[in-house]
Amino acid sequence: MLPALTLTLPQAMHTQLHRHLFCGDGRESAAIVLCSRVPRPRRRLLAKHVILVPNAACKRRASDQITWPGEYLEQAIDLAESGELTMILIHSHPGNQLDFSPVDDLSDRMVLPSLFQAVDTFHGTAIMVPDGTVRARLYDKSMERETVDLVSVAGDDLRYWWGDAPRNGTRARPIAFTSAMTDELHRLTAVVIGVSGTGSPVAEQLGRLGFGRIILIDPDRVEKRNLNRILNSTLQDVGDEIFKVNMFAAAIARYREADVAYPVPASLSTREAVLAASQADVIFCCTDTVEARYLADLICGTFLIPLFDVGVVIPTKQIDGRAQIIEAYGRVDYVQPGGASLLDRGVYTPASLEAEYLKGAAPGALRDRIDAGYLPGANEEAPAVISLNMRAASICLSEFINRAYPFGEPNCGYARVSFTVGAREQDYDSEDSFHKKATMPIAQGDAEPLLGLPSLKAPRVRKPK
Hints:
Blueprint: E1 5-10, H1 11-21, E2 30-37, E3 43-53, E4 60-61, E5 66-67, H2 71-83, E6 86-92, H3 102-118, E7 123-128, E8 134-139, E9 145-147, E10 150-154, E11 158-162, H4 179-185, E12 189-193, H5 199-209, E13 213-217, H6 235-240, H7 244-253, E14 261-264, H8 271-277, E15 282-285, H9 290-302, E16 307-313, E17 316-319, E18 322-325, E19 329-335, H10 350-361, H11 363-372, H12 386-404, E20 416-420, E21 425-429
Parallel strand pairs: 1-3, 1-10, 6-7, 12-13, 12-15, 13-14, 15-16
Antiparallel strand pairs: 2-3, 2-6, 4-5, 7-8, 8-9, 10-11, 16-19, 17-18, 19-20, 20-21
Helix pairs in contact: 5-12, 10-11
């Protein structure tokens, strides 16, 4: 069953919280996390700000309880009011008790009503134990509470902590490639942006691995020239002029339940597609356009969704009047929210964004800009062969599994995996090897306009006269 209520923290914030909450003296510490949210229908909280309550300011700190001054709640309320943010009061349990105590229950009844008087939305509390596991619960203003089904951290590793997991004993993660992994994937939602050469084998793997929901985004219909590289496509689909996403959703339904795949036959630049993508737990970007990669970058940061971006290219050049292949190249980039973006990594640039726009809107102007030396020529990818696409797609899903169910080498060293077919090489780049310079929005959530782009603002609703 898909989780009804979730909370996601970026890795940097989770690390900051862990260091503060477990300072080494064996006593409880506290902090306040302020959260935005993704658009409906999903109820997913996004950790946006954190206020650390200084240990020295606390009136009482013991191994099983803490009392801290109200001035830090006032700071949180000031921040929360401007964006109607949810406030979550979090404290440590140094004794490793992954459950709320009677003291915690009493504290909630005493403190939380003041939060509802200031900001009329849901608020909650959370606990963290020494290994970093977080458990949370949310209250409405009548003080009815519900458990947060999933707390996740999108960092070098993808960490998932389920609200229905055992309170005591071992809290081991499922092992990769086992039925326990499949059971957990049944509870997660993936989005695939671009269901074509690399996107179709990625989507096929997601369906076979057992993801509970697979959102497919692509505006194009199946064409005859696609049949050599889009899995499950047929001549009948070409004749029927079916959308790629509808074709692939039907294919997944033939071996999974009918409601697993959700097709969105629209460009990622539309509000419909962005809203659909916001509902996912993980993004697989398999597009061949610069704009879509830019938007995927924004979605990753805005909604705290980890991003796997796949690219393949077969560059050619003219030698003695004949086109010859220089190399066949593929790469998979993993982007964690708040980390080095695709823009930071040079996957696209402001110049390539402009070039792509001009190519569609004003091709003559593009030619003039290139001739004048203002813009580099836009890269043109030769049609990829299915073997290259399949290899890139396999690496992509392997990278996801490595991070969600870690084994082997630490994942921090593999922010990018690239390979060449001609030279038979495979290279790796760490997160630290990329200089983070671009400013991407973090945890903006459902703030309008979506992604900060005026083109995605909500349509005006006309009131009846």
